[in-house]
Amino acid sequence: MAEPRVGEVLVQRDELAHRVRELGAEISADYEGRDLLLVGVLKGAFFFLSDLMRVLAVPCEVDFMAVASYGDSTSTSGVVRILKDLDAPIQGREVLIVEDIVDSGLTLSYLLRMLQAREPKSVEVCALLTKPERRKVDLPIRYTGFEIPDRFAIGYGLDHAERFRELPYVAVLEEDG
Ligand code: IMP
Ligand code: MG
């Protein structure tokens, strides 16, 4: 099989920047006067989170979690292993989970349950990308960047086997041919 490589571009760099500004404006309006805590899900969300945070017009704090799902490199089992937990308690906080991509939704549904058990004042989700065709569980995603087709996406933080995160746009992973 050929070496995986960068395929068709799904979301261009300027489209990312434009949509991130729109999301930032929406979130800023919604969280005005509240106590916003961004929770970035590592590693995939780190470009998105840092760009989003810079366009917010409301004060916020940030914390990170790192999770790994058991399963192969391109599909999830839904069983999530916490590699790094939050540094601080979230009880009473207004949490906004910032995710790179929601595919089956299993990872996020696990994370949501886990964080809700810590009794935050609110928990919402902001996902850069979503693949609606692949969804296995119904999830309340408050803010979505782009809906993409059922293709494996790389770039702007998203990886395939730890590669391609550095691309400044989102592309399809081309695996054969
Ligand atoms: P889910 O549990 O199936 O929703 O997928 C969860 C995680 O799998 C995401 O947070 C990503 O880290 C990873 N993932 C799913 N689809 C893709 C993709 O197209 N490209 C890169 N990572 C993906
Ligand atoms: Mg992820």
Short characterization:
The protein has 177 residues and is of the alpha/beta class. The protein has helices spanning 13-30, 46-55, 106-116, and strands spanning 5-11, 36-42, 60-69, 80-84, 94-102, 122-130, 143-147, 153-154, 170-174. The chain has a single domain, classed as 3-Layer(aba) Sandwich (Rossmann fold), CATH 3.40.50.2020.
Backbone shape? globular
Write down the secondary-structure element order.
EHEHEEEHEEEE
Small molecules in complex: inosinic acid, magnesium ion
Low-pLDDT ranges: none
Strand-residue proportion: 25-35%
Counted beta strands: 9
Largest sheet: 6 strands, mixed
Strand arrangement in the largest pleated sheet: 4-3-2-5-6-7
Going by helix content, strand content and strand pairing, the class is alpha/beta
Global Rg: 16 Å
Number of domains: 1
Number of H- or I-type helical stretches: 3
User: What percentage of residues falls in helices of 4 or more residues?
Assistant: 10-25%
Task: Tell me the distance between the termini.
Answer: 8 Å
The CATH class designation is Alpha Beta
- Kindly report the CATH topology: Rossmann fold
Average of per-residue pLDDT values? 94
Q: What would you note in describing this structure?
A:
By secondary structure, the protein is an alpha/beta fold. It has a single domain (4-175), classed as Rossmann fold (3-Layer(aba) Sandwich). Helices cover 22% and strands 33% of the residues. It has helices at residues 13-30, 46-55, 106-116; strands at 5-11, 36-42, 60-69, 80-84, 94-102, 122-130, 143-147, 153-154, 170-174. It has a 6-stranded mixed sheet with strand order 4-3-2-5-6-7. Helix 3 (106-116) links the parallel strand 5 and strand 6. The longest helix is centred in the N-terminal third of the chain and has 18 residues, at 13-30. It is globular and about 50 Å long. 31% of the residues are buried. The model has no long low-confidence stretch (mean pLDDT 94). Bound molecules: inosinic acid and magnesium ion (MG). Magnesium ion (MG) binds next to strand 5.
